[in-house]
Amino acid sequence: MKTMKLWRIAFMMLAAFSFVSCSSDDDEEFLIDQLTGTWQQVYDEGVVAEGYVQYTFTPGTPANGGECTIYVYDVFTGDTTFVRDYVLTEDRHLAIYNGQYGTTPSEIYEYDVKRLSAKAMTWHLTNSDVVLNFKKVK
User: Fold this and answer.
1) d(CA 105, CA 37)
2) pLDDT digit string (tens) for 17-36?
3) Residue 79, C-beta contacts closer than 8 angstroms, at least 6 positions apart
4) If you write DSSP's letter for every residue of 8-42 in order, what string do you get?
5) Which residues, including other chains, have CB under 8 Å from residue 118's CB and lie 6 or more apart?
6) In the chain, at which end, N or C, are there fewer CB atoms within 10 A of the end residue's CB?
Protein backbone atom coordinates (compact mmCIF):
# COMPACT_ATOMS: atom_id res chain seq x y z
CA MET A 1 0.00 0.00 0.00
CA LYS A 2 2.85 2.35 0.85
CA THR A 3 4.51 1.63 -2.50
CA MET A 4 1.31 2.48 -4.36
CA LYS A 5 1.04 5.82 -2.54
CA LEU A 6 4.67 6.59 -3.34
CA TRP A 7 4.09 5.83 -7.04
CA ARG A 8 1.00 8.07 -7.07
CA ILE A 9 2.96 10.96 -5.58
CA ALA A 10 5.79 10.46 -8.07
CA PHE A 11 3.29 10.35 -10.96
CA MET A 12 1.56 13.55 -9.77
CA MET A 13 4.91 15.36 -9.52
CA LEU A 14 5.86 14.21 -13.02
CA ALA A 15 2.48 15.30 -14.42
CA ALA A 16 2.72 18.72 -12.74
CA PHE A 17 6.23 19.26 -14.10
CA SER A 18 5.15 18.21 -17.60
CA PHE A 19 2.24 20.67 -17.70
CA VAL A 20 4.35 23.56 -16.40
CA SER A 21 7.17 22.99 -18.89
CA CYS A 22 4.90 22.80 -21.96
CA SER A 23 4.65 25.80 -24.22
CA SER A 24 2.76 26.58 -27.37
CA ASP A 25 3.90 28.47 -30.46
CA ASP A 26 0.93 30.77 -29.89
CA ASP A 27 2.45 31.85 -26.58
CA GLU A 28 5.70 33.05 -28.15
CA GLU A 29 6.57 36.67 -27.59
CA PHE A 30 5.26 39.26 -30.06
CA LEU A 31 6.18 42.88 -29.33
CA ILE A 32 5.31 44.83 -32.48
CA ASP A 33 7.24 47.93 -31.34
CA GLN A 34 10.51 45.90 -31.29
CA LEU A 35 10.63 45.60 -35.11
CA THR A 36 12.42 48.94 -35.59
CA GLY A 37 16.16 48.48 -36.16
CA THR A 38 18.51 46.17 -38.03
CA TRP A 39 18.02 42.40 -38.05
CA GLN A 40 20.50 39.87 -39.41
CA GLN A 41 19.37 36.47 -40.62
CA VAL A 42 20.87 33.57 -38.68
CA TYR A 43 21.11 30.03 -39.95
CA ASP A 44 20.72 26.65 -38.32
CA GLU A 45 23.80 25.06 -36.82
CA GLY A 46 25.81 23.27 -39.49
CA VAL A 47 24.57 25.45 -42.35
CA VAL A 48 27.38 27.22 -44.16
CA ALA A 49 26.33 30.68 -45.36
CA GLU A 50 28.32 32.34 -48.13
CA GLY A 51 27.18 35.79 -47.10
CA TYR A 52 24.47 37.35 -45.00
CA VAL A 53 21.22 39.31 -45.17
CA GLN A 54 20.21 42.27 -43.01
CA TYR A 55 16.79 43.92 -42.83
CA THR A 56 16.57 47.47 -41.45
CA PHE A 57 13.04 48.52 -40.53
CA THR A 58 12.32 52.26 -40.28
CA PRO A 59 8.77 53.06 -39.15
CA GLY A 60 6.65 55.49 -41.08
CA THR A 61 3.04 56.52 -41.23
CA PRO A 62 0.94 54.58 -40.27
CA ALA A 63 3.01 53.30 -37.35
CA ASN A 64 2.60 49.64 -38.34
CA GLY A 65 4.39 50.24 -41.65
CA GLY A 66 7.35 52.03 -43.13
CA GLU A 67 10.52 51.44 -45.10
CA CYS A 68 12.57 48.25 -45.13
CA THR A 69 16.14 48.36 -46.41
CA ILE A 70 17.43 44.90 -47.32
CA TYR A 71 21.21 44.57 -47.48
CA VAL A 72 22.56 41.37 -49.02
CA TYR A 73 26.23 40.40 -48.97
CA ASP A 74 27.17 37.44 -51.13
CA VAL A 75 30.74 36.14 -51.40
CA PHE A 76 30.35 35.65 -55.15
CA THR A 77 28.29 38.68 -56.24
CA GLY A 78 29.17 41.28 -53.60
CA ASP A 79 26.85 43.83 -52.01
CA THR A 80 23.26 44.52 -53.04
CA THR A 81 20.77 46.85 -51.36
CA PHE A 82 17.01 46.92 -51.91
CA VAL A 83 14.57 49.45 -50.50
CA ARG A 84 11.03 48.18 -49.97
CA ASP A 85 7.94 49.16 -48.01
CA TYR A 86 6.51 47.02 -45.23
CA VAL A 87 3.38 46.56 -43.14
CA LEU A 88 3.24 44.53 -39.90
CA THR A 89 -0.21 43.94 -38.45
CA GLU A 90 -1.31 43.00 -34.93
CA ASP A 91 -2.32 39.55 -36.21
CA ARG A 92 1.41 38.90 -36.87
CA HIS A 93 1.31 39.27 -40.65
CA LEU A 94 4.32 40.96 -42.30
CA ALA A 95 4.24 42.06 -45.94
CA ILE A 96 7.37 43.41 -47.62
CA TYR A 97 6.68 44.84 -51.06
CA ASN A 98 8.01 47.06 -53.81
CA GLY A 99 5.66 50.03 -53.78
CA GLN A 100 7.90 52.51 -55.57
CA TYR A 101 6.44 52.13 -59.05
CA GLY A 102 2.80 53.21 -59.16
CA THR A 103 0.13 52.56 -56.58
CA THR A 104 -0.14 48.77 -56.93
CA PRO A 105 2.55 46.96 -54.95
CA SER A 106 4.62 44.45 -56.88
CA GLU A 107 6.98 41.75 -55.59
CA ILE A 108 4.98 41.10 -52.42
CA TYR A 109 6.62 38.79 -49.89
CA GLU A 110 4.35 37.73 -47.04
CA TYR A 111 5.38 36.21 -43.73
CA ASP A 112 3.74 35.09 -40.51
CA VAL A 113 5.80 36.44 -37.61
CA LYS A 114 6.00 33.69 -35.00
CA ARG A 115 8.30 35.54 -32.60
CA LEU A 116 9.35 39.17 -32.20
CA SER A 117 11.24 40.23 -29.11
CA ALA A 118 13.99 42.73 -28.35
CA LYS A 119 16.71 40.32 -29.55
CA ALA A 120 15.16 37.61 -31.74
CA MET A 121 12.61 37.25 -34.51
CA THR A 122 11.21 34.25 -36.41
CA TRP A 123 9.23 34.37 -39.67
CA HIS A 124 7.39 31.66 -41.57
CA LEU A 125 6.96 32.31 -45.27
CA THR A 126 3.19 32.33 -45.76
CA ASN A 127 1.89 29.09 -47.31
CA SER A 128 5.31 27.43 -47.02
CA ASP A 129 7.52 25.49 -44.61
CA VAL A 130 10.34 28.04 -44.93
CA VAL A 131 11.40 29.44 -41.54
CA LEU A 132 13.70 32.45 -41.20
CA ASN A 133 15.41 33.34 -37.92
CA PHE A 134 16.93 36.72 -37.08
CA LYS A 135 18.93 38.39 -34.35
CA LYS A 136 18.89 42.13 -33.71
CA VAL A 137 22.22 43.78 -34.48
CA LYS A 138 21.35 47.49 -34.10
Assistant:
1) 23
2) 555 445 444 457 888 889 99
3) 71, 72, 73
4) HHHHHHHHHHHHHH---GGGS-B-GGG--EEEEEE
5) 31, 34, 136
6) N
